[in-house]
Amino acid sequence: MSASEHGSMVDTDSENSFEIVRKQCDICAALLELPDDIFELIRNPMREIKVAIPVRMDDGTLRVFEGFRVQYNDVLGPTKGGIRFHPDETIDTIRALAAWMTWKCSLLELPLGGAKGGVICNPKVMSAGELERLSRGYVERIWSFIGPDKDIPAPDVYTNPQVMAWMMDQFSKIAGKNQFGVITGKPLYIGGSIGRNTATARGALYVIVEAARTAGMNLSEASLAIQGYGNAGFNLAFLANDIFGCKIAAVTDQRGGVYNKDGLDPIALYNYKMQNGTVGGFPDSEELKNGELFSLDVDILCPSALENVITKRNAGSIQASIIAELANGPTTPDADDILFDKGIQILPDFLCNAGGVTVSYFEMVQNFSMLYWDEAEVFERLKKKMATAYHSVLNSSEKHKINMRQAAYMVAVQRIADAMVLRGWA
Ligand code: GLU
Prior knowledge:
This protein has 3 domains: 1-44, no CATH class; 45-178, Leucine Dehydrogenase, chain A, domain 1 (Rossmann fold, 3-Layer(aba) Sandwich), CATH 3.40.50.10860; 199-352, NAD(P)-binding Rossmann-like Domain (Rossmann fold, 3-Layer(aba) Sandwich). It contains 13 helices and 12 strands. The protein has helices spanning 17-32, 36-42, 91-107, 128-142, 161-175, 199-215, 231-244, 266-276, 333-341, 349-352, 355-369, 375-400, 404-422, and strands at residues 47-56, 62-73, 79-86, 113-120, 151-155, 223-227, 247-253, 256-259, 286-287, 300-303, 322-324, 345-347. Helix 3 (91-107) packs across helix 13 (404-422), helix 4 crosses helix 5 (161-175) and helix 12 (375-400) packs across helix 13. It is globular. Residues 80-82, 104, 154, 156, 184-185, 328, 353, 356-357, 360 line the site of glutamic acid.
């Protein structure tokens, strides 16, 4: 089947993440020569839940928040994926993120399908009490659709271990028994796993190590530019600097950016951001606008915030030789083509940021077995998973002469398609 039979392969600077997923599916279906019925199953979410969550605010008023959970595909196992609290959330973003979770779990050979949830809200202006009532209210609305062997949520943008604790507790109350396995990313003493909090960054670093080896790059001399200084961006900066001596040349966040060609101190910068709400204005550094980050003369560019930041508008000016996508969906399909032509090695999101869900899976295994692992065991298993996934993508990319994202799609979707045939779905 040709690519055009599945629709246009030419992107027109689309900003809709789910349209991007569908374009990526088109390309993949053509490469794999997928039969039509499997293609239809792959490009459509299996189940979508939309809820209204009433929350009593601190001032006594009642506000109703809109929430979603999209369970994209469960052919490989119970669905898995984070919950975002974000003012700009849309059903299409959640659909796209749920699809990427499906490919991510398949690529990492986890016995899990993909899902994603979200609530339209601005947690930055809500009190702890309001956030707790919202978290519990969300679970009250979706509890019958989730469970340790059904769908297992986790943290994502603007949700954290405390939010997971409230959600797990609410589900346990409804179930009438402790159900630690319903949520991952929990605090350590209530069923969390060692290493989960920094797992996204650590997993990305393990992939970067392999990619640097492929590119003949010496990491101790490498410079990084990082967009986003939340959990993923900060921990990557810290670990890359601490373990390999990488130089953190530039960091931007929503409100500002900084550059220092001799390197920024990741911890001092984090403490500064905690005090000032932004990295902007950090002492001994030059001011950097968010857009300027992408064209800097650095070795590794790390988009670690939100979607659609590398587009055909800025892809041509990128000088880095490796792009490590810690964010989900930061690059549009036509930017991918430009980057491939420039010979830039992309570490696609659902490979590069898969450390989070991989340690989430380890957390589930520990919850089920009630036997908890030490740090060395978690890190060793994570390293093996990430390196294996990287090399399967690299092999596919070299074999088919396609970019790393298309290669990752081929590996992940082929496994899903095979499972569908085995289960008699298509
Ligand atoms: N939200 C993370 C992701 O996008 C982790 C999901 C999980 O741990 O289930 O991969």
